Amino acid sequence: MEQKSYFRLLLDSFKLLFRNKKLLIPVIVMFVLNGFLFFTRPYRNYIGFSLGQDVNFSIGSIIFIIVASIVMSLFSLIMYGWIFALIKPIVEGVEYNLKSEFNEGLKLALTLFLLGLLGLGLYLVLILVFILFFVLIGLLGSGGIIISILVGLIVVLSVLALILFLGSYSIPLIGVLIMERGGVIFSIKKAWVVYKKNLGNSFALFGITILLNFIVYIPTVIVMVVFMSTTFLTGQSNIDPTLYYFVTNLASLPYLVVFLAILIYYSLNYHNRVILSSSKKITVKNLLKK
């Protein structure tokens, strides 16, 4: 069936986002709870420490930061599950209820958690493989510089290929998670089938994602450079942790908006290419009328 251009589909994603502002509620909740956490003394000290300030930590403060970080990570996972659950009815153009989608989001959060564990296991295995590669380079170093360079080049190219694969594969995977709401095994298998059939599409969306993230992350980078340059020029960190926290979070707002739009983007793309038949292709114009 005829597909919309990538740019047109991206514009449609932003339109749906601004038409469904309820999708911002989980993000706002995360911001508020992070703000409450920031105003605790241990966490403020931690921010100051990350800015290069001389801060003394008690054992209780360290334990509090570790526990709070774990709790906030799990809570953020639940909020992301809620976001994923809310996107499905938005893309389908049907009515939705925040509470019922939150319940669906809990299931999706569990799936995301399990996928995260699987990804962590894969990451550890890859680290082990790369360590063995570098050991091999060291062993071959005495045998000739050319062999060492070739092995090093193979490692670099392998890393780049892996990044390209995982980045492009995550696009149909996210589409399956949002639109199909399946478990871990189902999502991985279904995403692989979709990925093989839409390889060029996945690569294109991955490239667009990188470009968008680069553009919207610029304000955050500028803010961080301004703050850090103060430390570099004076030789000491006089940055107010409160000011740093709120300014950096404010600068990251464009990134969060684009992040939500990209999730809708992936879902629309999946909905059009996989779920709908040519006679039932989704049109955002019809969704916005509802």
Our count of domains comes out at: 1
Structural class category: mainly alpha
Largest β sheet strand count, sense and barrel closure:
none
Please tell me the overall pLDDT: 82
Strand and helix order: HHHHHHHHHHHH
What is the tally of helical segments? 12
Helix content: over 70%
Oligomer: single chain
CA radius of gyration is: 22 Å
Tell me the number of strands: 0
The rounded distance between the terminal residues' Cα atoms is 24 Å
What does this structure look like?
It is a single chain. 83% of the residues lie in helices and 0% in strands. It has helices at residues 6-19, 25-38, 41-50, 59-92, 98-141, 145-180, 184-197, 199-216, 218-234, 241-251, 253-275, 284-289. The protein has one domain (6-289). The longest helix is centred in the middle third of the chain and has 44 residues, at 98-141. The protein is mostly helical. It contains twelve helices and no strands.
Features of the shown structure:
single chain, 290 residues, mainly alpha, 83% helix, globular
Write the layout of secondary structure elements.
Layout: H1 6-19, H2 25-38, H3 41-50, H4 59-92, H5 98-141, H6 145-180, H7 184-197, H8 199-216, H9 218-234, H10 241-251, H11 253-275, H12 284-289
Helix pairs in contact: 1-11, 2-4, 3-4, 4-5, 4-11, 5-6, 6-7, 6-8, 6-11, 8-11, 9-10
